[in-house]
Structures are given as structure tokens and as C-alpha cells.
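Below: protein 1.
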Amino acid sequence: MIQQLGNMDWMLKDLADNVPGVHQIVVLSADGLRIARHGGDPDAADRLAAACAGLQSLAAAVATEIPDSDGRMRLVVIEITGGYFYLMAVSTGSYLAVLTDEHVDAGLVGAAMRDMVVRIGAHLAAPPRHDGKAG
């Protein structure tokens, strides 16, 4: 069961409205389930959430190779032809993903994402799933 802060749509819209160049925002659980979205269609958000689950797992595996790392992924940024992809940990088991155009202000995106993480992080918990059940 994912515990979340009511309807997050307005917070996601706020991030998109305040950062020119943001195309799509998805909040997801570690196992790739979409919790909330802004921009794009629901199917695209589901595909992005599923891809992010694999990416955060890969980032955590890479982190184990860094001495003194706790193995937790905090932020992944990928430059793609035409834009950028950002994935930031929100809380244990949940993540914030943002797709932007290539002209976005990276500092503004990072600051806006950190602000959102602070706003929603304490209210979002996605415990790991065991045998298809939360907890």
C-alpha cells in the first residue's frame, strides 16, 4: 500500500509551471508503479515509471562500487538528444522523474526537484513489495 499526500497533481503542475522546459513529471514507487504524473499521457507515464525502476536499481548497484557509499541512489541525470532526464529519490521506496527539453536551466530543475522532495517526501512511503504484497 502506498501512503501518499492526497492528490499531488497540483504540486507537479506547480513544478512544471515554474521551470520552463519541463515536459513530463512522474512520481513512482521503487518497483515501477506510477503514483502521480503531470504532462504526457498515462501510458507514457507508466512506461517511464517502469524504466525508472530499472534505472534506480542499476544506480544502486553502481553505488556499491564506491567506497563508503550507502548504496542508495540520490540523483541520476541523463543527457538525451533533445533534452534531459532527471531521477531523484524522494523517500525510501519512491522517486521523482522529470523529462525536460534541451534548453532547461539545470540548476532550476535541481532546486525545484529538491523543494518538491522536501514537500512530499515525509508524506510518501512506498514499502518494498514481497510476494506481490506491500510491506
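Below: protein 2.
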Amino acid sequence: MSKRNGTDFLAADVHARLRAKILTFEIKPGTRLVEDEISASMNVGRTPVREALLRLQGEGLVSREKGWVVESTDPSNMDAIFESRIAIEGYATRLAAARVTDADITELAALVDEMARFEQMNRAQLNQLNRTFHRRIIEMAGNPFFLDMHEKTLFYYWNMRLPVIFTKDQTQEANDQHTVILSALADHRADAAEEAAREHVRTTYRIVKDALEGF
């Protein structure tokens, strides 16, 4: 392996590890990223670290102004974020309808059943179940590019730290929509699955928008 190829490999590894930490909020928005500290913690030189940070900058996950910083999402981008979610999740759910297996449906049904007991859990637990449900549908679409885009739109959404608390009725409505999505997937009804997914995101969009307008 040439020195250049070795550096590329290390940069790709550092990029993947940092990206995962940022997207899962292990590294929180506003955190300063110091090249020397990253080099030491990952046991690599500064060159692959710098290249990895440049890639993350190109993806909009970090910025560079007097040092590297994990980006925070501007609430003014909310419309664009939800438009992206509607497009990605809608079409991915359409593809999933043609590709899901009986085992996939069983797995999703278990998640829907668990979310139905939302009054017995805290919001963080419910959010995790919800994210797993939607992520699994994206994975079932069989397109890794959709999964990558889905993760980024969710990052920008959660990164906004929106002052929104879903009511019991709103949470129940979301769960009812999960059931509709699941039914369409189980019957391999692509049109219905896509529209159900789009309506589900639109519903969240309306709730968030109403909350922000009154904030």
C-alpha cells in the first residue's frame, strides 16, 4: 500500500468514526474539534484527521472558523429539512413495500406494539423506538444512499433542539399512522405505503411549525 493510499484509508476511517459520533449526538452541536486531540484519541497522524474534517465540512456537519466546530442547525432551514424528509422517507417506503419480507413485517409490528405503550415510557425511549421503526423501513428499501440521506435529515432535525412537546393525542395519532404504514407494507401496496409515510412526516411538520409559531 502506498503512503497516499494509506492516508486515504486512515482519513476514511476517521471520517466514518467522527461522522457516526456527530450523527448520534455523542459529539454534540457546538463542540470544538481539536485536531491534536482527535489524532491522539484515534492514534493517527494529523493529516488524515484534517482530511476527515474537510470531508465533514463538505457534508455540512462541521464548520471552520477559528477552529473546527460541530454545526448547529438554523431553524430557518426547517422547511427544507421536512421537504427532504417527505421526499426521502416517502419514496423509500414505496420501495420497501415491494421488498419487505414476512420477517421484516414481524419486526416492524413488534415496534408498533411497543410504541402503543407510550404512556408507560419516557419520551427518550419512545423517540428511540420511533427512530428504529423508520430506520428499519429505510433499510428495507435496499438503497444505502437513502439511508445515508435519511440519517443526515434526522441529524438536522434533532439538531434544532425544537421546543416541541407532543401531546398524548398527537402521539396517538403518530402511532395510528405507524399502523397504517405497516398495513400498506404488509400488503405490498406501494402507492399507499408512500402516501402514508409522506402524510406521517407532514403531520410532524404541522405540529412542529405550529409550536414554533407560538414560541
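The two ends are 56 Å apart (CA to CA).
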